[in-house]
Amino acid sequence: MNTLVITTVDGIAYGLLLAIAAAGLTVAFGAGGVLNLAHGTFIAAGGYIAAAWTAGTWGSLATAILLATLAGAAGGGVLAAATAGLRGRGHLDQALLTFGIALVGGDVLTAVFGSDVLRPRMPAALEGTVAVAGYRYPVDRLAVLAVAVLVAVVGYVVLHRSRAGRLVRATVDDRAMVAGVGVNPRTVDAAVLVASGALAGLAGALTTPILGVGPGTADTALLLSLIIVVCGGLGSVPGAVAAAIGVGVVQTVGVVTIPALAPYLLITAMAVVLLVRRRPVPGQVT
Amino acid sequence: MRAFTQAVAVARLRSLPMVAPLVVAALAIIVVAVAADPYLHTTVARMLPFALLAVSVAVVTGHAGLPTLGQVAPYAAGAYLTARLALTGIDLAIVHLLCAAVVGAVVAGLAGAVLVRHRGTVFLMLSLAVAELTAITAGQWRAVSGGTDGLAGIPAPRLLPGLPPLLGDRTVLLYAATITIAATAVAVWLLRGDRRMLLTATRANEDRARASGHPVNAHLWMVHCAAGAMAGIAGTLLIHTHRWITPADVGFGTAALVLLAAVIGGARSLGGAAVGAVIVLGVRDVVAVEVPGHAPLLVGALFVIGVYALPGGLTALPARLRRRHRRHAGPHAAAPPTAATSVRSTS
């Protein structure tokens, strides 16, 4: 029972991290129609930077998270510049470009950081366990959960209460209207890609204490993010958050409870969600 | 009606020059086979299954308009069936090819029954699910696939009973090239004339095609099945040229690479897709030998360069060069008529 509760909390924490990562991906798709296959590579880059920069002190941890976020933002900027030249060329060409960037980025990451699974060195205060409601729980995971909740809340407030957030949501709904109020939707697209990259880097940095980061991280993170974006309804942030928590729980609890079927669970769940959903997905252009 | 008749004429005219690339491909293979380099023979022969898989992906993606990652499912079915047949002592190549084509069509038919009801991103993600399920099943079903270790030491096939097994590098190359070119030629031949028009109409304006009484989903399903048969044959070739297989050969990596290879080649052109596949594998397996461990870097760079340098794929290059040439020739030169891909304007 103890294991199950802990894995469920793990799953929710992991799901929230995936939600942070996938929120950017889903908005970038909804607003600018950019399906970013390099997203997983940004997440892995954030993870590698966090793992390499942390030295067991609070200062190094904060710097590492900041650097990971900045690296992700820089990647998003490169992507914004690169996709600007492909306007009106369809999703397959974007897939070609972003998959190419992902392959190049993955190769560079492996060349710089090696092909071992790395883990960050957390401050001593985060290394132990703590008793919560009768269960022993690792402190670093609780900290990650707290930060993930914080980022999700800040993200919600920015998206719903600030002018920038309203512009982003307006661009998802009606680009022409955004242009009509005097804002270039392409500027919004570029800003969304940069923010999406920053969130990916941040999520990568926050995931490393739980999962570590290695050569497989980018592919796994991309696959999970895509599943979340599609299941949540392309372009919908609340949908992505709900789907992300679902994916996180299925990934962690499923592996513990039914190990034999675990590999099939997620993919089957995605297929079922896609098949039973009645309302059309935005962006589903034939 | 004019646009429609024009489109039919364009489709008819196009079917003739389609023979030329196949002849060029055959000549290229003969040139390679004449060269006295067994390494070259093996390398090219091992590219051909992937090239045929790219052709089958191009049929679904370019002609049916459904971007697919799921063709690895019939490919895997054909490959594992061939491997199992060969390991149980049935070593006739024609039996392998026929069985793989049938099982490929059946697998693609089952997956297609669900897939062809969907379009665009949802189709792509469902086909991703098919690809993932294929790789997971190939890894888990140890009795058939040998698990993640894969199957090795698969006996070579024979062309006829009593003939020696296909072992020589040059023989394998000529055999694989014959099958690849023949299968591509059959696909090109099947996708000509009215069938091609029907698929073009479905891509351009599905509602109108439906309103004209065409059972769109049934057509797409049949195309999906036929492409599955081709992918099954490609799976047989994979075993015949490599004689080992692991789940990684039929996973998401292969699915993504083959789809993007078809896009680089030009997904509407089956020959272009095959050439795209050969280019991608050439960069990954031949050029990358010079910089060990950095194959992803080179393939990634190829994709990034390809997307900017070759809009519309490799096969769109001649048309673009012609257009540029005419533009330079003078401002009065007539603009080339755009390809009539839409049947929407029938007035």
Q: The biggest beta sheet of chain A, please? A: 2 strands, antiparallel
Annotation, overall tally of beta strands of chain B: 0
Total helical elements of chain B:
15
> Could you tell me the mean pLDDT of chain B?
86
Assign a percent range to the helix content of chain B: over 70%
Structural class of chain A: mainly alpha
Number of domains of chain B: 1
Summary keywords:
heterodimer, A: 286 residues, mainly alpha, two-stranded antiparallel ribbon, 75% helix, disordered C terminus, B: 347 residues, 15 helices, 0% strand, globular, transmembrane helix (chain B), ABC_transp_permease (chain B), membrane (chain B)
Describe the 3D structure.
The complex is a heterodimer of chains A (286) and B (347). With 286 residues, chain A is an all-alpha fold. Chain A has one domain (2-276). Helix content of chain A is 75%, strand content 3%. A two-stranded antiparallel sheet of chain A has the order 1-2. The longest helix of chain A is centred in the first third of the chain and has 31 residues, at 2-32. Residues 281-286 of chain A have low confidence and may be disordered. Chain B is built from 15 helices and no strands. In chain B, α3 (38-63) runs antiparallel to α11. Chain B has one domain (2-251). By secondary structure, chain B is mainly alpha-helical. In chain B, 71% of the residues lie in helices and 0% in strands. Classes of the chains: A mainly alpha (286), B mainly alpha (347). Chain A binds chain B through residues 35, 82, 85-86, 89, 91-93, 95-97, 99-108, 111, 219, 223, 226-227, 230, 234, 263-264, 267-268, 270-271, 274-275, 281, 283-286, and chain B through 61, 65, 67, 114, 118-122, 124-126, 128-129, 132-133, 136, 139-140, 206, 252, 256, 259-260, 263-264, 267, 294, 296-297, 299-304, 306-308, 311. Chain B: The chain crosses the membrane at residues 18-36, 48-73, 93-115, 172-191, 218-238, 244-263, 270-289, 295-317. Chain B: It comes from Micromonospora qiuiae.
